[in-house]
Amino acid sequence: MTEHHPDTERRELEAADWFARLSRTPIETEELTRFQRWSRDPDNLAAYNDIEDISRAVRGLRDDPVMRAAAHHALAQPPERARRNFRGAWWAWGAGLAFAAVVSGAVLVLRPGVSDTYSTRVGEISSLRLDDGSQVRLNTDSTLRVRFTNGQRRVELLRGEAYFEVAHDTARPFVVAAGSAQVRAIGTAFDVRRAGDKVRIVLAEGRVRVTDRTTSRKDGWALNPGQGLVLSKAAGAPEPTTVDVAAATSWRTGTLTFHNVTLAAVVDELNRYSNTKIVLEASAPRELVVSGAFQAGDTAEFTSAASLLYGLTARKLPGGEVALSAPAAPGPRT
Predict the structure, then answer these.
(1) Which run of H or E residues covers position 301?
(2) Scanning 96, 128, 186, 331, which has its CA 20 to 30 A from the CA of 148?
(3) What separation in angstroms does the CA of 21 have from each of 43, 114, 177, 190, 328?
(4) Given this model, what pLDDT does residue 217 score?
(5) Where are the transmembrane segments (predicted)?
(6) What string of H, E and C letters represents the secondary structure of 208-248?
(7) pTM over 0.70
């Protein structure tokens, strides 16, 4: 018989609670910040990853006839018989999640041919579970349109960024359109970001094929895990490149990770998550190379770090923005 340590039980319950919170929509940046603090403990993060693994596994069971029958049987039981004590029983929580996945898959149904549109405000991150079992994390200030038919699962990213975990369905390809670009997948995980005519695709798992109707490359590009592709009018002849997937998708947990990125690019990215904008004055070293992890939407954290680490001066502007500048040169000694 396996004993359950009280700390382990508490950690698993907290992880389950965080998973439920992060699956809701919308998610405020402040809540993601609290999650990031909690997940800094390696044991907490491991417990949360275990739940994500269970969730990912059971999504594939939503059409299993045995699981459907079990779910309907459980729902048909009187409350006294259906109730179970899950405390201290990790396997039971997983089974309950499997039932929930089956039931929610039956409830969250888009009518064929009908579009649904989802949007987030600045600083919001939203989690969506589509009727096919696919999951979408919609980043700050983004808009997504979903349209499922019997032959295709089609999603259009109108602006912003989204991370897709696609349920496997060979009969209905999953297509994400972003401007002139299309990403075609069957069962995989990838990130798409659209800003104007620029589209960036980052593949985390599986395989996708990307096409762009404005190019002469009709067969498109096939991406492997760990690769990214940037399409734009100014991109010339784009080719897949190796990318840091963890850094590119770290926004999902409320943390923005940068490795050898210019100060100007870091500020542009941070400004996406807050209405309090950072302004680089003329004296600021825009090409300064920055590395680090910062909380999304926490302007004060970054400006403090920039002052301490790079000697920059931060000051509040009348409109509420925060200006960063190089420190004034010391005057001549007298």
Answers:
(1) helix 299-310
(2) 96
(3) 19, 28, 28, 22, 46
(4) 85
(5) 90-110
(6) EEEEECCCCCCCCEEECCCEEEEECCCCCCCCCEECCHHHH
(7) no
- Across the chain, the runs of DSSP E, i.e. the strands, are 27-28, 115-119, 124-129, 135-138, 143-148, 153-165, 174-178, 181-185, 189-195, 198-205, 208-212, 221-223, 227-231, 241-242, 255-262, 278-280, 289-295, 313-316, 322-325
Q: Which CATH number is correct for 254-325, 3.55.50.30, 3.40.50.720, 3.90.79.10, 3.30.1330.10?
A: 3.55.50.30
At 277 the pLDDT is: 97
Q: What is the CATH class of 115-245? A: mainly beta
Q: What is the pLDDT of residue 101?
A: 33
> Where do we find the tokens 């309950």?
96
Show Cβ contacts of residue 121 under 8 Å, excluding neighbours closer than 6 positions.
26, 140, 141
| 33-84: pLDDT as tens digits | 677 778 878 788 888 877 776 665 555 554 555 555 554 454 455 544 433 4
Instruction: Examine the pLDDT at 251 and tell me if it is beyond 90.
Output: yes
Top-confidence residue, 275 or 88: 275
Distance, in Å, from the CA atom of 137 to the CA atom of 254, rounded to the nearest integer, reads 12
Q: Domain residue spans in the chain?
A: 6-107, 115-245, 254-325
Token readout for 170 is 């060979």
Q: Provide the 8-state DSSP code for 67.
A: H
